[in-house]
What we know:
single chain; binds fe (ii) ion; binds FE2/S2 (inorganic) cluster
Amino acid sequence: MPLARDGQPRKANPTTALRGIERNRRIDVGRRKERMSEAVRPILQSALDERGAAPESDAGFLWDFWYPALRSGEVRGNQLKTAMLLEVPLVLGRNAQGKAFAMRDSCPHRGIPLSYGRFDGKAVECSYHGWKFEACSGQCVEIPSLTSQDKLKVERIFAGHYPCEERDGYFWVYMNSWAPVTTRGGAAERREEKDNAEAQSAQRLAERRGGESAAAPTLATFSEKYRITHLECDLPSHVDQGIIGLMDPAHGPFVHQSWYWRSRHSIHEKEKKFEPIPNGFRMSPHTPSSNSAPYRMLKKYTGEPVTTTIDFVLPNIRTEEIRSGKLWFSSRATVTPVRRDLCRIDFVAAWNLLLPVWIFRMFAEKFLRQDQETMIQQAEGLKHNPRLMLIDDADRPAKWYFGLKAGLLESRRTGAAMVHPMPGPITLHWRS
Ligand code: FES
Ligand SMILES: [Fe+2]
């Protein structure tokens, strides 16, 4: 059964970008939960052991970053939509001024999901006892059961809420590690208030830090007019497996065999230069693989050299820019943790080439489907908790990913500057 963004089973939707694969999906995530996380843990743990650090959370998520929660087009009018990020249930929408908001999908009174309630463009009204919360701040504005004798300060109660911005056709949510958790019992208000103050301070901190987390990511574009398209694909895996799958160069000739791209006989030795960048690494600008037909065509068309730059930055973002003369193609793939056993690839691409969106989608969907089918098969193996290995040089980017993650967690823990796993620029060799 396919899964909705909140991780719940949903009916097959004929408009789903990758509807063809749904019949093949056997994502029995509920029961796989524990085993999947155990399968991933040894890899992360070995990276952490080298650095002597401990994981921030045993689910292996990176908090205090922006993650895409929903496509913008999914929210209309005063609709409330649900999503899950890092195992946090969210309710999202847009207020009357068009401002996006994300609240924890849980009423601070008794925990019923706020998404069962109503939204009037300003406040979300809980379906259980009618408490109302201003959508963007989460601040309580009304408790219908109170009488004039009651002393409770309504405005000091907050529902959990997260910074939320719309960009590139997504609702992005800043997953704050200090954001309020659902509260129970008599001390609820006090705890909510304290948690809310912490959430705000974390947000301020993020804004001051600049760069890494001040604003939601934006796709780079290089001309006024361009085409843009979005694709998505669920993977029954821990986010770490999704990410190292995304940056893995050696699976191409086996998983993505096709006449127009490459065959397994086209394998040849590659040499690629990499350099460290803040929170990530860059495959230095280079002329792309000569055995790929689209690149050959592009070069023929513009008569100018084609260069490609590929970046990976924490927590989960891979961007690629291809330029040739005035023509350009820019894409971003993010692998977002929904739960510890489920992640989602969100892929957005823009270009000013004479390439119709439908043709691009046809190829891109096929690519994603091939990756998805492989990861579904991999999940079958991972549930038996095998020992895994990363080899040089083809898996070196994966090693850097785990190194970056361990380095970031360690620097957050100690407050010291982050140690980058790459000492400097380096050239890798592999066959693909
Ligand atoms: S549970 Fe939401 S108002 Fe009581
Ligand atoms: Fe792939």
